[in-house]
Amino acid sequence: MVDGVTLPAPRTTAAPRLSDIAGQAAVSEATVSRVLNGKQGVADSTRQRVLAALDILGYERPVRLRQRSAGLIGLVTPELTNPIFPAFAQSVEQVLAGHGYTPVLCTQLPGGATEDELVEQLVERGVPFVLINGYNERISAPFVSPDDNAAVRMALQHLADLGHRRIGLAIGPQRYVPSRRKRDGFVEAAVSVLGMDRSEAELLVCSTLFSVEGGQVAAGALLDAGCTGIVCGSDLMALGVVRAARGRGLDVPRDVSVVGFDDSQLIAFTDPPLTTVRQPVQAMAAAAVGALLEEIGGSPVQRTEYVFQPELVVRGSTAAVRA
């Protein structure tokens, strides 16, 4: 396990449990049985979902159902300490397995190649690739992203509806596209929803690191600025904000309301359960893999950005502002 996210299990020769496979593939146990026994009458897409579920759960495929891998596909992630990256990796792996491909997971290491350098290498070698959460207008490739502008706006609107008027934004380094987009969206929403001056809204944006420690640092500045509501660029940052507020003797959400971003696993079980903006991870992963396989297959893929709508998930870390 990595930060509470279960990664695919090692292969096992144990007899597969129909209920587990059915749950993973979102089909009935009868359908799983038909696939495993090579029976007809199952749609190809459903059959592939069942086989992918076998792979993800770590079961060996029955001999008659095994096929050679269609190829290896590299999956590069910045890190695995933030639960959202294993979530994306697992979703991408599931979709790839359904098409017969085997992913090779690589993480960036301190002192190793940067994301920009890796992309440059891909461009130079002519290797097909898709970028998730990494739009760059200078690169000709398919991009898959959440609507960061809409994400921040719905979080700020939620806090405004609860009566908060002094709202801050805690985000990561400005060199990252999601940080810049969230900053721009926050400033626009603060002006239109809260009636702030643009300069005042910009002062309530604090860029640190996408980590618990980064959230703590940002919270210190934003609480000093009188914020009763804080929107965060990641769930980890939001947990740091909660820690910082408690360190000052403040209660979340009675004194300070906090909104995260990602809705990574276990966030619903924190204390308090975190209100957050959910990234549509599975839909984004499916779109990214689909675009990549189209290009691998020789079909022209539009060099554009596919933008997915996030969803506000309201839990216990936000409440009406105190009088």
Give the secondary structure arrangement, pairings included.
Elements: H1 18-25, H2 29-36, H3 44-57, E1 71-77, H4 84-98, E2 101-107, H5 115-125, E3 131-132, E4 143-146, H6 148-161, E5 167-171, H7 177-194, H8 198-203, E6 205-207, H9 212-224, E7 229-232, H10 235-247, E8 257-262, E9 275-278, H11 281-296, E10 305-308, E11 311-313
Parallel strand pairs: 1-2, 3-4, 4-10, 5-6, 5-7, 7-8, 8-9
Antiparallel strand pairs: 9-11
Helix pairs in contact: 1-2, 1-3, 3-4, 4-11, 6-7, 9-10
Sketch the major β-sheet.
6 strands, mixed
Rg value? 22 Å
Strand content: 15-25%
Overall mean confidence score, pLDDT: 88
Number of strands: 11
Structural class: alpha/beta
- Cα distance spanning the termini: 44 Å
Rough outline: globular
What share of the residues lie within helices? 40-55%
Sheet with the most strands: spatial strand order: 6-5-7-8-9-11
Number of helices: 11
Q: Provide the low-confidence segments as ranges.
A: 1-13
Helix-strand string? HHHEHEHEEHEHHEHEHEEHEE
What does the model show?
By secondary structure, this protein is of the alpha/beta class. Helices cover 42% and strands 15% of the residues. The strands form three sheets. The chain has a six-stranded mixed β-sheet with strand order 6-5-7-8-9-11, with helices on both faces. A three-stranded parallel β-sheet has the order 3-4-10, with helices on one face. Strand 1, helix 4 and strand 2 form a beta-alpha-beta unit. The N terminus is likely disordered.
